[in-house]
Design brief:
The chain is of the alpha/beta class. It is built from twelve helices and 17 strands. This is Leucine-binding protein domain-containing protein.
Length: 406
């Protein structure tokens, strides 16, 4: 989840905590420090715009723990899921989980809440794996190697939008982004991808408030117009349409996806497409989640949360130790990421299959959200996005997916 209302505070924290060089738990070789019982913690957002996403993440982590225990648990003992922590004080929630004996923690959703959790868990030498943080600056936030995420940093969405433009035959592209850290990060990702793909930028600009129409008017001659924004979607898209940009030329970031209908002029978005982070869960995975949470309707970040919990369990298995430093040191390997001197593991999809494979040797976990392969920052190296296409009624329908390497 991108920056919330505390975006300025996050930016300040990132600037302070990105400095300095310390030991990296991702590449360490720690001595065993666990007590023989693998305990997972979960931090959920109970307030703010991302609160509604908590149920899916909780159900996904519960599913992973139950699957692990059905396969024999960890070291013959059940994997424990500690009571989830929530509230506005993420640092305090992380500290409570550390005191309760958590060996790895899943969460939080909102990127602005991540630094406090990272700080607390870094001090306790406990890995934090977020299924939803996308703020680009978190890649270099000081975690001493205890921070990972199964959601791609936001700049990757810009690259995905450019990939759609390239597939559509565009030779020139205008990248319009809303002022702010999020918009700049995605625009930078799009600009870099356009250059790499040989596309020429034509009319790219930053806009604020209702100035999107003015920016679009200067960019409408480009083959494709990409619009990146977090807020004011209806006003922004109305301004773009009024500027003469047809939907057939328009690609928009996921925060602009909406059921606009008659709120916009007829056909305003016809042919436009939007990217949304993640992939649509398979029917089997959906059924398994709903079995544990019958009222679940929104599955956003469920796949990423399941993957986060599964990777923590597999990392403990690879280390043969439930200590936090041991788990952190094996997360990259079990995710399929490059490890110096390490042999490639057997590819497997889903936790039950990977646990069975791990009984025979090293594994390369392929997640419900796709390949993971953590890099040196704990970020995924493959980003997958669902694609939605707008019809003449300004309503979106799912229309495939796009994958980009990072």
């Amino acid at each position: 989840m991108r920056l919330g209302l505390a975006g300025a505070a996050l930016a300040s924290a990132l600037a302070i905590a990105s400095c300095g060089v310390t030991a990296d738990a991702r590449t360490g070789s720690p001595a065993a420090s666990g007590d023989g019982v693998l305990r997972l913690g979960l931090i959920l957002d109970s307030t703010g715009d991302s609160q509604y996403l908590s149920d899916a993440q909780r159900a996904a982590v519960v599913l992973a723990v139950q699957q692990a225990n059905a396969a024999g648990g960890f070291g013959g003992k059940p994997v424990e899921l500690l009571p989830p922590e929530s509230g506005t004080d993420t640092g305090a929630a992380a500290q409570r989980l550390a005191k309760a004996g958590a060996d790895a923690v899943i969460g939080p959703t909102d990127s602005s809440r991540a630094p406090a959790a990272i700080d607390a868990l870094r001090a306790a030498k406990i890995p934090l794996i977020s299924p939803a943080n996308t703020a680009a600056g978190l890649s270099t936030y000081r975690s001493d190697g205890y921070y990972f995420r199964t959601a791609a940093p936001e700049g990757a969405e810009g690259a995905a939008l450019v990939e759609l433009a390239r597939r559509g035959g565009a030779k020139t592209v205008a990248i319009l982004h809303q002022a702010g850290d999020h918009g700049k990060a995605e625009a930078d990702g799009a600009s870099a991808a356009a250059k790499a793909d040989g596309l020429t930028e034509k009319g790219s600009a930053e806009f604020s408030g209702h100035d999107a129409g003015r920016a679009a008017a200067a960019a409408k001659d480009a083959d494709t117009v990409i619009v990146v924004a977090q807020t004011e979607g209806q006003a922004i898209l109305a301004g773009v349409a009024d500027a003469g940009v047809p939907g057939s030329k328009l690609l928009v970031s996921g925060d602009l996806l909406g059921h606009y209908g008659s709120a916009l002029a007829n056909h305003a978005l016809e042919g436009a497409r939007a990217t949304v982070p993640g992939v649509f869960p398979t029917p089997e995975f959906q059924a398994a989640l709903i079995e544990h949470a019958p009222g679940l309707t929104d599955l956003t970040f469920a796949s990423e949360a399941y993957d986060a919990a599964s990777l923590a369990i597999l990392a403990a298995g690879a280390a043969k130790d439930d200590g936090g430093p041991s788990i952190a040191s094996k997360l990259t390997a079990v995710s399929g990421g490059a490890v110096q001197g390490g042999a490639a593991g057997e590819k497997c999809t889903g936790l039950p299959a990977c646990l069975a494979a791990q009984a025979k040797g090293a594994v390369d976990y392929e997640g419900m959200s796709g390949p993971i392969a953590f890099d040196s920052h704990g970020d995924v190296t493959t980003a997958r996005y669902m694609v939605f296409a707008f019809g003449a009624d300004n309503q979106p329908k799912r229309d495939g997916e796009v994958t980009v390497a990072r």
